[in-house]
Automatic annotation (TrEMBL):
Subcellular location: Membrane
Positions of the UniProt region annotated as Disordered: 1-32
Keyword Nucleus annotated: no
InterPro entries in the cross-refs: Beta-prop_FAM234A_B, FAM234, Quinoprotein_ADH-like_sf, WD40/YVTN_repeat-like_dom_sf
Listed name of the protein: Protein FAM234A
Keywords, sorted A to Z: Glycoprotein, Membrane, Signal-anchor, Transmembrane, Transmembrane helix
Entry's family note: Belongs to the FAM234 family.
Residue stretches of biased makeup (Basic and acidic residues): 1-22
This protein's GO CC annotations: cell surface; membrane
Amino acid sequence: MMDSRDQEAEIHPLKNEDRKSQENLGNQLKNEDNLKSMPLQSRLSRCRAVAFFLSLFICLFVVFVISFIIPCPDRPASQRMWRVDYSAAVTYDFLAVEDINRDRIRDVLFLYKHTNSSSNFSRSCADEGLSSPCTFVAVVSGANGSMLWERPVASDVALVKCAVSQPRSSEVSSACILVGRPHSVIAVDLFSGKTLWTHPSSLGRNASILSPLLQLPDVDGDGTPDLLLLVREEEEVNGYIYSGTTGHQIGHRGSLGIDGESGFLLHVTRTGAHYILFPCASSLCGCSVKGLYEKVTRRDGPFKKDPLWENMLNATTCRRLVHSAGAVRHLVHIPGKAGADVLLVGAEACVLLDGQALTPRWTLNRAQVLRKPIFGHYKPDALAVVIENGTGIHRQILLLDLSSGAILWSQALPSLPGAPGSASLPTADHRSAFFFWGFHELDSTNETETGATWHSLYMLHPTLPNVLLELANISANIVTFEAVLFEPSRHAAYVLLTGPTTSDVPGLVSLIKHRVRDLVPSSRVVHLSEAGPDSDQAVRDRFSRLRYRSEA
Ligand SMILES: *[C@@H]1O[C@H](CO)[C@@H](O)[C@H](O)[C@H]1NC(C)=O
Ligand SMILES: *[C@@H]1O[C@H](CO)[C@@H](O)[C@H](O)[C@H]1NC(C)=O
Ligand SMILES: *[C@@H]1O[C@H](CO)[C@@H](O)[C@H](O)[C@H]1NC(C)=O
Ligand SMILES: *[C@@H]1O[C@H](CO)[C@@H](O)[C@H](O)[C@H]1NC(C)=O
Ligand SMILES: *[C@@H]1O[C@H](CO)[C@@H](O)[C@H](O)[C@H]1NC(C)=O
Ligand SMILES: *[C@@H]1O[C@H](CO)[C@@H](O)[C@H](O)[C@H]1NC(C)=O
Ligand SMILES: *[C@@H]1O[C@H](CO)[C@@H](O)[C@H](O)[C@H]1NC(C)=O
Ligand SMILES: *[C@@H]1O[C@H](CO)[C@@H](O)[C@H](O)[C@H]1NC(C)=O
């Protein structure tokens, strides 16, 4: 038990000490001890104070050193704008954006055809045993446009597929696979530019290479995906399988026994069976990969069959699966909860097909779409598809809700021939910023009279659906356009590859990067409906403050 004084001592420890010392004063016997302990205690508390302030000082000093004296690990500064020029060259409709020098800023890979490479550190066509002119693969730094590597690869290039993983002595590397003309298959290491392998291909003289190059699951048991090249020879599509590690052809040529066009899609059904889908004369055609693989290798492969699909194919390898109103122009995969669905974009309608039963989920009639659709988010986290209905002065941009096919936004936006495709970038509010090319006649200015042939770049954000921001006017011929986040969750930029319209006439080829935000202050605000409550400056401020998000 505690007596009341001790309890009080716990509540008022200092008071208690006073009282104790008073008691001690009266106590003659213990007086000497106390006279010694008193200064000792105060000296102790002084020590404590010194220790406290010393450690505080050390803490502050460490904070100071870390924040001001020791520099942060060097983060390469990204230039807001850069440009790379090649004279007397032609270029290809291809761009790949990947962090190649591992500085955490993505870099740009592109192709050009030139008799001389721009810099003398790179080799010439003759060094690779190619006749001049030949096609180069080039990678420029996304930070400042400086050349990382470039090398001649083939006389001409028909197909490219980048970021194909390659197992290299314990570390996984990435490669670009190129299908060259005349026929060769080449793999180039993405990080060093070294040729990993190159093989002549056994394609016939009149073969036309169909796109894209498909990546099959590993069939030769080396742990790398393998490659399926589809080629049209004498009104029939043939398949060639190549090893992804060595480039060796696996088996023989396998005929699909059917004619078809570019736009192949490797589809996996919900039961895990692989089928190739492609456009063929106003229909969607399908082939069993298992059937094709058995034809090519005369062996059993790692592929499955889907009973429902085998029923649709009637025990043949390939056949027409779905009839479409008008020609089929594009096939696109739509990620779904249970597996991918297929968006069939036709000359007269767009249909979203269920990925298992191939039955329509929704159909948008009276839409003449030529260009491959792109995706973005109009409502938060709900995927929308952007299609272009019609061409030229009758072109209209439509944003459709992917789950229902309902039109979310539509706007007439005429385009000139050769206008590049649209793009989108995710923003921090779980929507997307959309970029469209065109020229608008909303101000009823007669564009054709002035002879201007520039393309204008417009930006839309779903929070301001009645406003388009005209970011830039470009008069050069645009070969490829892409909207890119060079660094995760940082500034949005766009990359333009411009060059001659035909590959016969070499001219100036330029690769240009611009930061979107830098273009906003000088942009033109286009009100699509009667002017809203926002002033032009307020609209520009809203666009300047947009934050972007890296795709997961
Ligand atoms: C290519 O470069 C070499 C030397 O750099 C030059 O002599 C030659 O004229 C160039 N050829 C063309 C077609 O520009
Ligand atoms: C490239 O050419 C310049 C002059 O044109 C020369 O100074 C430089 O040393 C050359 N670089 C290499 C790697 O040969
Ligand atoms: C460009 O950026 C790279 C890093 O991405 C850096 O290594 C290089 O020195 C820079 N070049 C110039 C000319 O600033
Ligand atoms: C290639 O096509 C041309 C015309 O398209 C034809 O004259 C020629 O006979 C074909 N060659 C072969 C090997 O099929
Ligand atoms: C394929 O099967 C369908 C019914 O599923 C049938 O109508 C059609 O005649 C069959 N075609 C051939 C070539 O066997
Ligand atoms: C597509 O454009 C055509 C002609 O410009 C028009 O008749 C049709 O209604 C448009 N389709 C949609 C879905 O808006
Ligand atoms: C625009 O110019 C063309 C040809 O110069 C002319 O035919 C057309 O009527 C003009 N349109 C307007 C709206 O002025
Ligand atoms: C593009 O050109 C048009 C007509 O010359 C002009 O009105 C507009 O402001 C320009 N836009 C930009 C972003 O410079």
